Amino acid sequence: MASHIVGYPRMGPKRELKFALESFWDKKSSAEDLQKVAADLRSSIWKQMADAGIKYIPSNTFSYYDQVLDTTSMLGAVPPRYSWNGGEIGFDTYFSMARGNASVPAMEMTKWFDTNYHFIVPELGPDVNFSYASHKAVDEYKEAKALGVDTVPVLIGPVSYLLLSKPAKGVEKTFSLLSLLPKIIPVYKEVISELKAAGASWIQFDEPTLVLDLDSYKLEAFTAAYADLESTLSGLNVLVETYFADLTAEAFKTLCGLKGVTAYGVDLVRGTQTIGLIKSDFPKGKYLFAGVVDGRNIWANDLASSVNTLQELEAVVGKDKLVVSSSCSLLHTAVDLVNETKLDDEIKSWLAFAAQKVVEVNALAKALAGQKDEAFFSANAAALASRKSSPRVTNEAVQKAAAALKSSDHRRATNVSARLDAQQKKLNLPVLPTTTIGSFPQTLELRRVRREFKAKKISEDVYVKAIKEEIKKVVDLQEELDIDVLVHGEPERNDMVEYFGEQLSGFAFTVNGWVQSYGSRCVKPPIIYGDVSRPNPMTVFWSSTAQSMTARPMKGMLTGPVTILNWSFVRNDQPRFETCYQIALAIKDEVEDLEKAGINVIQIDEAALREGLPLRKSEHAFYLKWAVHSFRITNCGVQDTTQIHTHMCYSNFNDIIHSIIDMDADVITIENSRSDEKLLSVFREGVKYGAGIGPGVYDIHSPRIPSTEEIADRINKMLAVLETNILWVNPDCGLKTRKYAEVKPALKNMVAAAKLLRTQLASAK
Known about the structure:
This protein is α/β, with parallel strands linked by helices. The chain has two domains: 2-389, TIM Barrel (Alpha-Beta Barrel), CATH 3.20.20.210; 412-764, TIM Barrel (Alpha-Beta Barrel). 43% of the residues lie in helices and 12% in strands. The chain is built from 27 helices and 22 strands. The chain has an eight-stranded parallel sheet with strand order 1-12-11-10-9-8-6-2. Strands 17-19-20-21-22 form a five-stranded parallel sheet. Helix 11 links the parallel strand 11 and strand 12. Helix 8 (216-233) runs parallel beside helix 9 (249-256), helix 17 packs antiparallel against helix 18 (460-481) and helix 26 crosses helix 27 (740-764). One of its GO terms (cellular component) is cytosol.
């Protein structure tokens, strides 16, 4: 029985790649230095999987930014603004596409399906001249082979690549991206031919879009693409990998009918219904790569249950045709539990990070081959039993309170228009009020203070004094810039979810449980293992301290329940909505304490609400109902004069705009600039929005500083579709990843643009 891993985390167990990337971007190290760190990480990953007994080890899943951008580079699909003149794409062009540069903005970034990972969206049109411009896939295969490891090169499949793309600026929105298939297939043929010549015997095409709701035209594109590739693929074993959801019957039929394909990979963790399709109609003589080990969560696999599932499948496909696999790339989980020295032993026994999942995959394969490791299976069963019976998991009072929530929809008593009038009387804000999203740059000194306090190297008094000084600096800067509604900059927080999770019951935390979000950006998701409650106020002290430093409104800054849920590793022993309701009650307590402390503007970020939307349309309504309800629970008890803000970022919001309206926030700030103002199209199409709204006026994920004129132009585009009295002016997102040298001039230009437009609006009356 063979074993397979779809993909593996790239950052390294101690975020080695993150630091190497940032050093290179800051011009503190060379391209050769970066390449050396990357090569060492790849070598370590391949060796680890080989030593664990994995037969089908992936290559070309390593990336300096993301795998879709790698494919854009492979195809030479560089937008003209980056002035690429052909040849092999180097770091300058690659990172300009990802991050922008001094003269041009970055490409759009959006979420990878329903994960917290991001990818750079390809910009395509009929005039793109595709060419083989990055040999990374072949180079990495050869690199592994030179180390004695025969790998399975992984490519984003041609159809998924096009379906994840968008029409470039100036191209009709109705342009059929799939019409480009005949233009990109020749490049894929070149890559495949080089891989064959280099000695590859297997190749993996990731086609995750097959799990989406696809019409017959899109499904036929898969059939056409692989029929065109069939002769080139001859002599290779070909795996088409899908993940993140069930396949529909039509998609399963399309997958199994692809020409030249030897094997099919399916996610049996999030796609349990696919088993029925396999049992009823799996093609004879083909391989099934069965994804039974969860690549998106950190809980130990139920090995006994997985063996039962695999045995059922073995009876259908045959012993020699079944391969045990991860459900998706392990990119979405933490790297290695060995690095966790502070988790207590009981909770640690319940977990499996990427390195442990590799071992689980191989243990299952060996068990099916009659070489079951009895001690390993016994320890796994004991850990599962411990988790099920542990008293720390259950809090009956919390469960009772959450269950009672279903009897009300928790709406504020007054409509948003009346509330905005009451708030304006209290806040007295100008037209086009300016604000920021929450965080300010996290300097090395600030990070050192937090780190030393956590390590108990400095006293609480020293820590509080340092944080107060940082808040004062941020408040003074905002007043100097003449921003209307201030933030305290969140200097006490390393991460917007981790900070709250550390103060809520039912959460556990790792030391090195980092997961890549995009580029060098890593997050350390908390682990929700039990029922959630708030023992004490979490932000009231810092928000009150900040408000005491200014006469201007100071936002209280909270993370919403849906985002805390979607950006955590969530317990899998109860429905997600039940955990979300518990978090909502905890945040509700905090909101009401902030209001009592005199905070009149409270922002409850729901950056990840859209991210959690299920991939199947049939499941949207149920998710949105409980997600939106959870948000309303948090603020249903405040007075009309308390202004509730929320923030969302980096997703396609147009298809859920009515649910966003139903959240009933007083003001929503939302990502807009990096996606070519895609958000504004929904208002051009006639959707009426009566609450305050701040579509972002500049992209904070790029070091580029926008001019006053550029920002004013963006605001004018917004004024063409939104009422003047509801429009706010703000960046796309928080500023923690930027430097003050970038933030100060950008915010100065933002405020200047708002004032310019105010003057123009006043003179036009």
